[in-house]
UniProtKB/TrEMBL annotation:
<dbReference type="Pfam" id="PF19055">
    <property type="entry name" value="ABC2_membrane_7"/>
</dbReference>
<dbReference type="InterPro" id="IPR050352">
    <property type="entry name" value="ABCG_transporters"/>
</dbReference>
<dbReference type="InterPro" id="IPR027417">
    <property type="entry name" value="P-loop_NTPase"/>
</dbReference>
<keyword id="KW-0812">Transmembrane</keyword>
<dbReference type="GO" id="GO:0016020">
    <property type="term" value="C:membrane"/>
</dbReference>
<keyword id="KW-0472">Membrane</keyword>
<keyword id="KW-1133">Transmembrane helix</keyword>
<feature type="transmembrane region" description="Helical">
    <location>
        <begin position="193"/>
        <end position="212"/>
    </location>
</feature>
<feature type="transmembrane region" description="Helical">
    <location>
        <begin position="42"/>
        <end position="65"/>
    </location>
</feature>
<dbReference type="GO" id="GO:0140359">
    <property type="term" value="F:ABC-type transporter activity"/>
</dbReference>
<feature type="domain" description="ABC transporter family G">
    <location>
        <begin position="66"/>
        <end position="120"/>
    </location>
</feature>
<keyword id="KW-0813">Transport</keyword>
<dbReference type="InterPro" id="IPR043926">
    <property type="entry name" value="ABCG_dom"/>
</dbReference>
<protein>
    <recommendedName>
        <fullName>ABC transporter family G domain-containing protein</fullName>
    </recommendedName>
</protein>
Protein backbone atom coordinates (compact mmCIF):
# COMPACT_ATOMS: atom_id res chain seq x y z
CA UNK A 1 0.00 0.00 0.00
CA UNK A 2 2.85 2.37 0.80
CA UNK A 3 3.25 5.25 3.20
CA UNK A 4 4.30 8.88 3.30
CA UNK A 5 7.94 7.86 2.73
CA UNK A 6 7.56 4.68 0.67
CA UNK A 7 5.69 5.02 -2.62
CA UNK A 8 2.79 2.64 -3.02
CA UNK A 9 -0.62 2.65 -4.64
CA UNK A 10 -2.60 5.76 -5.54
CA UNK A 11 -5.10 7.45 -3.24
CA UNK A 12 -8.07 5.99 -5.09
CA UNK A 13 -6.63 2.49 -4.96
CA UNK A 14 -5.88 2.97 -1.27
CA UNK A 15 -9.52 3.91 -0.62
CA UNK A 16 -10.83 0.89 -2.51
CA UNK A 17 -8.36 -1.30 -0.62
CA UNK A 18 -9.76 0.04 2.65
CA UNK A 19 -13.26 -0.93 1.55
CA UNK A 20 -12.03 -4.39 0.59
CA UNK A 21 -10.40 -4.85 4.00
CA UNK A 22 -13.74 -4.11 5.68
CA UNK A 23 -15.43 -6.72 3.50
CA UNK A 24 -13.05 -9.50 4.58
CA UNK A 25 -15.03 -10.07 7.77
CA UNK A 26 -18.28 -10.46 5.80
CA UNK A 27 -20.10 -7.76 7.79
CA UNK A 28 -23.85 -7.51 8.15
CA UNK A 29 -23.70 -3.72 8.34
CA UNK A 30 -21.19 -1.57 6.46
CA UNK A 31 -20.56 2.12 7.20
CA UNK A 32 -18.56 4.12 4.65
CA UNK A 33 -17.53 7.74 5.14
CA UNK A 34 -17.15 9.47 1.77
CA UNK A 35 -15.92 6.38 -0.12
CA UNK A 36 -16.09 8.20 -3.49
CA UNK A 37 -13.86 11.16 -2.61
CA UNK A 38 -10.71 11.18 -4.76
CA UNK A 39 -12.04 8.62 -7.26
CA UNK A 40 -12.64 9.27 -10.93
CA UNK A 41 -16.15 8.86 -12.30
CA UNK A 42 -15.65 5.29 -13.54
CA UNK A 43 -13.95 4.08 -10.36
CA UNK A 44 -16.70 5.67 -8.27
CA UNK A 45 -19.38 4.01 -10.40
CA UNK A 46 -17.79 0.55 -10.16
CA UNK A 47 -17.40 0.90 -6.39
CA UNK A 48 -21.05 1.85 -5.90
CA UNK A 49 -22.10 -0.97 -8.25
CA UNK A 50 -20.18 -3.43 -6.05
CA UNK A 51 -21.82 -2.00 -2.93
CA UNK A 52 -25.20 -2.31 -4.65
CA UNK A 53 -24.59 -6.03 -5.13
CA UNK A 54 -23.76 -6.35 -1.44
CA UNK A 55 -26.99 -4.57 -0.54
CA UNK A 56 -28.93 -6.91 -2.81
CA UNK A 57 -27.34 -9.84 -0.94
CA UNK A 58 -28.69 -8.57 2.38
CA UNK A 59 -25.89 -6.36 3.69
CA UNK A 60 -26.95 -3.00 5.13
CA UNK A 61 -24.75 -0.38 3.46
CA UNK A 62 -24.64 3.18 4.80
CA UNK A 63 -22.39 5.75 3.15
CA UNK A 64 -22.03 9.50 3.08
CA UNK A 65 -21.36 10.99 -0.35
CA UNK A 66 -20.83 14.45 -1.77
CA UNK A 67 -21.80 15.44 -5.31
CA UNK A 68 -22.76 11.99 -6.65
CA UNK A 69 -23.42 11.75 -10.37
CA UNK A 70 -26.92 10.99 -11.62
CA UNK A 71 -25.94 7.41 -12.48
CA UNK A 72 -24.50 6.82 -9.01
CA UNK A 73 -27.39 8.49 -7.20
CA UNK A 74 -29.92 6.34 -9.06
CA UNK A 75 -28.27 3.20 -7.65
CA UNK A 76 -29.11 4.22 -4.08
CA UNK A 77 -32.31 2.82 -2.59
CA UNK A 78 -32.83 5.52 0.05
CA UNK A 79 -31.28 8.91 0.67
CA UNK A 80 -31.06 11.22 3.67
CA UNK A 81 -30.46 14.95 3.26
CA UNK A 82 -29.48 16.91 6.37
CA UNK A 83 -29.40 20.66 6.96
CA UNK A 84 -28.17 22.13 10.23
CA UNK A 85 -28.54 18.75 11.92
CA UNK A 86 -32.18 18.25 10.87
CA UNK A 87 -33.66 16.00 8.21
CA UNK A 88 -34.83 17.69 5.04
CA UNK A 89 -35.63 14.42 3.28
CA UNK A 90 -35.40 10.74 4.11
CA UNK A 91 -36.94 8.23 1.79
CA UNK A 92 -36.67 6.38 -1.52
CA UNK A 93 -34.55 8.05 -4.19
CA UNK A 94 -37.29 7.45 -6.74
CA UNK A 95 -39.76 9.56 -4.73
CA UNK A 96 -37.41 12.49 -4.13
CA UNK A 97 -38.30 14.58 -7.23
CA UNK A 98 -42.03 14.20 -6.61
CA UNK A 99 -41.69 15.11 -2.95
CA UNK A 100 -39.94 18.40 -3.66
CA UNK A 101 -42.26 19.16 -6.55
CA UNK A 102 -45.17 19.03 -4.11
CA UNK A 103 -43.29 21.53 -1.93
CA UNK A 104 -43.01 23.95 -4.84
CA UNK A 105 -39.42 23.13 -5.82
CA UNK A 106 -39.66 21.05 -9.01
CA UNK A 107 -36.51 19.49 -10.41
CA UNK A 108 -35.68 19.90 -14.09
CA UNK A 109 -35.91 16.65 -16.08
CA UNK A 110 -32.23 16.74 -17.08
CA UNK A 111 -30.96 17.86 -13.67
CA UNK A 112 -29.38 15.66 -11.01
CA UNK A 113 -31.93 15.33 -8.16
CA UNK A 114 -29.14 15.23 -5.57
CA UNK A 115 -27.68 18.50 -6.86
CA UNK A 116 -31.16 19.98 -6.98
CA UNK A 117 -31.71 19.36 -3.27
CA UNK A 118 -28.22 20.54 -2.33
CA UNK A 119 -28.65 23.77 -4.30
CA UNK A 120 -32.05 24.24 -2.68
CA UNK A 121 -30.59 23.91 0.81
CA UNK A 122 -27.91 26.49 0.02
CA UNK A 123 -29.77 29.04 -2.11
CA UNK A 124 -33.18 29.30 -0.48
CA UNK A 125 -33.86 31.40 2.58
CA UNK A 126 -33.78 29.98 6.09
CA UNK A 127 -37.57 30.27 6.27
CA UNK A 128 -38.04 28.27 3.07
CA UNK A 129 -35.63 25.56 4.17
CA UNK A 130 -37.35 25.46 7.56
CA UNK A 131 -40.68 24.84 5.84
CA UNK A 132 -39.11 21.97 3.89
CA UNK A 133 -38.04 20.35 7.17
CA UNK A 134 -41.43 20.87 8.78
CA UNK A 135 -43.23 19.41 5.77
CA UNK A 136 -40.98 16.39 5.99
CA UNK A 137 -41.90 15.84 9.64
CA UNK A 138 -45.59 16.15 8.83
CA UNK A 139 -45.43 14.10 5.62
CA UNK A 140 -46.35 10.53 4.84
CA UNK A 141 -42.74 9.43 4.34
CA UNK A 142 -41.89 10.36 7.92
CA UNK A 143 -44.91 8.46 9.20
CA UNK A 144 -43.95 5.38 7.19
CA UNK A 145 -40.42 5.59 8.56
CA UNK A 146 -41.65 5.71 12.15
CA UNK A 147 -43.94 2.77 11.47
CA UNK A 148 -41.12 0.67 10.03
CA UNK A 149 -38.96 1.47 13.07
CA UNK A 150 -41.71 0.35 15.45
CA UNK A 151 -42.21 -2.86 13.47
CA UNK A 152 -38.48 -3.59 13.63
CA UNK A 153 -38.47 -3.01 17.39
CA UNK A 154 -41.45 -5.30 17.86
CA UNK A 155 -39.80 -8.17 15.97
CA UNK A 156 -36.27 -7.64 17.32
CA UNK A 157 -34.83 -9.93 19.98
CA UNK A 158 -31.38 -10.13 21.48
CA UNK A 159 -30.69 -13.87 21.14
CA UNK A 160 -31.96 -13.98 17.54
CA UNK A 161 -29.48 -11.32 16.47
CA UNK A 162 -26.46 -13.43 17.48
CA UNK A 163 -27.94 -16.78 16.45
CA UNK A 164 -25.86 -18.68 13.96
CA UNK A 165 -22.70 -16.63 14.43
CA UNK A 166 -19.43 -18.52 14.63
CA UNK A 167 -17.78 -18.86 18.01
CA UNK A 168 -15.03 -16.36 18.72
CA UNK A 169 -11.38 -17.38 18.65
CA UNK A 170 -9.36 -17.78 21.81
CA UNK A 171 -7.04 -15.18 23.32
CA UNK A 172 -3.91 -17.05 22.19
CA UNK A 173 -5.07 -17.01 18.56
CA UNK A 174 -5.95 -13.34 18.81
CA UNK A 175 -2.53 -12.54 20.27
CA UNK A 176 -0.76 -14.48 17.51
CA UNK A 177 -2.68 -12.69 14.76
CA UNK A 178 -2.10 -9.27 16.30
CA UNK A 179 1.61 -9.99 16.80
CA UNK A 180 2.03 -11.04 13.16
CA UNK A 181 0.17 -7.94 12.05
CA UNK A 182 2.33 -5.66 14.20
CA UNK A 183 5.58 -7.24 13.01
CA UNK A 184 4.51 -7.07 9.37
CA UNK A 185 3.44 -3.44 9.71
CA UNK A 186 6.70 -2.50 11.44
CA UNK A 187 8.86 -4.17 8.79
CA UNK A 188 6.96 -2.49 5.99
CA UNK A 189 7.30 0.98 7.48
CA UNK A 190 10.99 1.48 6.83
CA UNK A 191 11.03 5.07 8.01
CA UNK A 192 9.73 4.23 11.47
CA UNK A 193 11.95 1.15 11.67
CA UNK A 194 15.05 3.20 10.83
CA UNK A 195 14.08 5.88 13.33
CA UNK A 196 13.75 3.28 16.09
CA UNK A 197 17.18 1.82 15.40
CA UNK A 198 18.72 5.27 15.11
CA UNK A 199 17.15 6.39 18.39
CA UNK A 200 18.44 3.27 20.16
CA UNK A 201 21.98 3.86 18.88
CA UNK A 202 21.85 7.55 19.77
CA UNK A 203 20.59 6.94 23.30
CA UNK A 204 23.14 4.18 23.84
CA UNK A 205 25.98 6.46 22.77
CA UNK A 206 24.62 9.33 24.87
CA UNK A 207 24.36 7.23 28.04
CA UNK A 208 27.84 5.80 27.47
CA UNK A 209 29.28 9.30 27.18
CA UNK A 210 27.40 10.64 30.21
CA UNK A 211 28.37 7.83 32.55
CA UNK A 212 31.86 7.13 31.19
CA UNK A 213 34.29 6.60 34.06
CA UNK A 214 31.60 6.78 36.75
CA UNK A 215 31.89 3.10 37.69
Amino acid sequence: VGSALVKGISGGERKRTSVGIELITNPRVLFLDEPLSGLDSYAAYTLVAALKKLAAAGVLVFCSVHQPSSEIFDMFDDAVFLHDGRVAYHGPVSELPGHFEKLGFPCKPSFNPADHVMFLMQKESAEAVGRVKERWLAGALHGELLGSIEDARAHASGPAWGRGRAAGVGPCSELAVLMRREVRGTLRNRGVLGARFGMSLFLGALYAWLFAGSA
